[in-house]
Amino acid sequence: MARYTGPKTKIARRFNEPIFGPDKTLQKKSYPPGQHGRGRRKKQSEYAIQLQAKQKAKYTYGVLEKQFRNIFKEANRRSGITGTLLLQLLEARLDNTVFRLGIAPSRRAARQLVTHKHIRVNGNVVNIPSYRLKAGDVISVREKSKSLELITDSLAAKKSRKYTWLEWDDAEYTGKFVTYPEREDIPENIQEQLIVELYSK
Question: How many CA atoms lie within 13 A of 108 on its CB side?
């Protein structure tokens, strides 16, 4: 199954944001990686800025190039604001939703839970991280998986923040994908309009 397996801190330093989760290195080294990281930065071209916005979105959601391009094409086909639709489709991925619900501490861990068949959707086991949820879908943890240390620790450390498009039941270990989120509700610092401009060239 295709996924990014390279160094995470190096990528996070490139964008100067903890896109893979908390990273102490970013506090110590707030400059890009490489031997010229501390040096004078060249002014970036318009294309470079747009490309960086796309790369940031890809790494944030754990999607590779071909998948990302296909998601963009679908967003472009739909009626509405393409950039917002792109982020909504990314947010509707099963692995991302498992992470947002607090079942896993990161998207990478959420992906692993899904592929190892610990997650159900509407009562059926789904082991495809890219599975797209629809409004009303119910996500739950398999009964025999509720005692997994990864899941219990993640839920115990779950931040108080709630997402308006999701519901969670602590007693039943179930969540609900209520609807697609509005752009202002998505917390990711992504400039989606730059991605639209890049693919429109």
Answer: 11
Can you give the pTM of this predicted structure? 0.83
Tell me the pLDDT tens digit for each residue of 69-85: 999 999 999 999 999 99
Q: How far is CA 201 from CA 51, 137, 192, in A?
A: 12, 36, 15
Q: Is the dihedral of CA 71, 56, 93, 185 positive or negative?
A: negative
**CA 71, CA 77: separation in Å to the nearest integer?**
10
| CB of 43 closer than 8 Å to CB of 33 | no
List of residues 6+ apart from 74 with CB closer than 8 A = 89
All domains of the chain in start order, with CATH? 8-89+189-199 (1.10.1050.10), 93-179 (3.10.290.10)
Across the beta sheet with 137-141, the strand order is 124-125, 119-121, 137-141, 174-177, 166-169
Please give the structure tokens belonging to residue 61: 């959601």
Q: Angle CA(175)–CA(181)–CA(182) in degrees, nearest 5?
A: 155
